[in-house]
């Protein structure tokens, strides 16, 4: 199956980390929160149910294993997992690390305050941390 083109808004707001068995993993450009995106590489998919059953299972495998590892590694209070798609219809799943000390706790991160972009050194450091974490996970189907 041919990979889907990445929506330009996702491309503008995030940076590539790596390719997973199903998804492209990207880092959102807002250093207020460690925030990852999982974007299935399938054409014409806007809802989770648009994926076949094997891809649905793979999406949740990737989200669960990466989310758990990220939460433990960064000592988060909560991991928010969301798939909204109201602005960007291409299916993408947000994994957002939350802490009771963050500026929007306990409210949502969307539309709150001004995002703070990573500088190039911060971006490289965070990308490397996430990549090292993900490379240690078994994300392939059982």
UniProtKB/TrEMBL annotation:
<protein>
    <submittedName>
        <fullName>HIT family protein</fullName>
    </submittedName>
</protein>
<dbReference type="InterPro" id="IPR036265">
    <property type="entry name" value="HIT-like_sf"/>
</dbReference>
<dbReference type="Pfam" id="PF01230">
    <property type="entry name" value="HIT"/>
</dbReference>
<dbReference type="InterPro" id="IPR026026">
    <property type="entry name" value="HIT_Hint"/>
</dbReference>
<dbReference type="InterPro" id="IPR011146">
    <property type="entry name" value="HIT-like"/>
</dbReference>
<feature type="domain" description="HIT">
    <location>
        <begin position="36"/>
        <end position="105"/>
    </location>
</feature>
């Amino acid at each position: 199956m041919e990979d889907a083109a990445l929506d330009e808004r996702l491309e503008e707001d995030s940076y590539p980390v790596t390719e997973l068995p199903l998804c492209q993993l990207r880092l959102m450009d807002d250093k207020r929160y460690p925030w990852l995106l999982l974007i299935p590489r399938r054409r014409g998919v806007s809802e989770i149910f648009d994926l076949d059953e094997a891809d649905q299972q793979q999406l949740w495998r990737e989200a669960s294993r990466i989310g758990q590892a990220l939460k433990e590694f960064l000592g988060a209070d909560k991991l928010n997992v969301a798939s909204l798609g109201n602005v960007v219809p291409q299916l993408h799943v947000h994994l957002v690390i939350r802490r009771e000390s963050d500026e929007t706790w306990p409210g949502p991160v969307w539309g709150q305050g001004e995002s703070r972009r990573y500088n190039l050194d911060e971006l490289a450091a965070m990308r490397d941390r996430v990549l090292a974490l993900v490379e240690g996970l078994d994300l392939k189907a059982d």
